[in-house]
Amino acid sequence: MGICYHKLVAQRHLKRNGVSRKTQLIEKFSFDAADDIPGLADFIFIDGDHSYEGIRKDWQIFPDKLRRGGIMALHDTS
Hints:
About 35% of the residues lie in helices and about 20% in strands. By secondary structure, it is of the alpha+beta class. The protein has a two-stranded parallel ribbon. The longest helix is centred in the N-terminal third of the chain and has 12 residues, at about 5-15. It is globular.
């Protein structure tokens, strides 16, 4: 049907909490999305490759994209 309910829920929560204008949703593979982050971010959430190698790559790429004290969250990691 082409509908991503997770995206709609995320957008609704961002709007409801007054941060939708401060937030950018990037829909790409995480390793392709790193260059789309403008400047340094306060929070990065990645629902990416859940494999060990994928997570390791995200941990190598994204810390340099965070402000000091910023938070990076990875979905479904162990």
